[in-house]
Specification:
By secondary structure, the protein is of the alpha+beta class. It contains six helices and eleven strands. The chain has a four-stranded antiparallel β-sheet, with no helix packed on it. A three-stranded antiparallel β-sheet has the order 1-3-2, with helices on one face. A two-stranded antiparallel sheet has the order 4-11.
């Protein structure tokens, strides 16, 4: 586990598969004399594979429509330190958001950890004021902290048997459409009147569709790893 990381290792390159060096002419005879170059080439090839894998994982996330911020949670580290000579470097590719990655990789049923309902913001919920959640809609907890508990009123969805509730802001807001789609605050006594705005949909549970395939990406990286190392060794040796 990388120091200070809260993520989970999801792909691990440890030992380089056997390379038939004899196929490269006199390379086998020169290995002892060029030990440092070969070791540096193996490490550089491992680094290239790790960067390639990280990029592929990030592309997978953005391709699934999950956004750049979540995609950038993918990181990599290569061990040991560059200053240490080794013929068996290790590469870690991991996510700083492992729970979200697992959820979108496996799909399945999501239920609330605390409370009776999951609160799903609509497109009209105000944007979060939290610096780490810019451009995202406010979660219900933040909405109540900012605007107070009495702003929202709950209505049961007809025919849901109490499984689905709608949380409306009855006053103080008005919907926006077009390019500036979202919600506007309305002042009391102002010219523009407020209207009921659906801010959240509360559900007992929801099923998350599988949108990622981590194993497929990891396998594709594993397949190109040997060729990247060989190419890096040859480059170091000037061949």
């Amino acid at each position: 586990m990388p120091p200070g990381s809260s993520g989970v290792v999801v792909w691990f390159f440890k030992k380089m598969p056997d390379i038939k060096l004899a196929a490269f002419g006199n390379l086998q005879k020169d290995l002892d004399a060029q030990r440092k170059d070969v070791g540096a080439g193996i490490r550089a090839g491992t680094e290239d594979a790790a960067v390639f894998g990280k990029t592929r994982f990030r592309d997978m996330v953005t391709g699934a429509g999950l956004g750049n911020r979540l995609a950038k949670s993918w990181r990599h580290n290569v061990y040991p330190d560059r200053r240490k000579e080794t013929f068996e470097p290790a590469a870690l590719i991991f996510s700083k958001a492992p729970e979200l990655m697992n959820a979108f990789n496996e799909g399945g049923l999501i239920t609330p950890r605390r409370g009776a309902f999951l609160a799903i913001p609509t497109e009209f919920a105000p944007k979060s004021r939290h610096p780490l959640a810019r451009h995202r809609n406010m979660p219900l907890k933040e909405f109540r902290e900012v605007f107070g508990d009495g702003v929202l009123s709950l209505r049961e969805k007809k025919g849901s048997g109490g499984q689905v509730l709608y949380a409306f802001a009855e006053q103080g807001f008005r919907r926006r459409f077009g390019k500036r789609r979202g919600v506007s605050r309305v002042k009391k006594g102002g010219r523009i009147k407020s209207e009921p705005v659906l801010m959240y949909v509360l559900v007992k549970q929801t099923r998350l569709q599988r949108r990622l395939n981590i194993d497929a990406v990891g396998n594709s990286v594993q397949q190109v790893y040997p060729s990247m190392v060989i190419r890096s060794i040859l480059k170091r040796l000037g061949q």
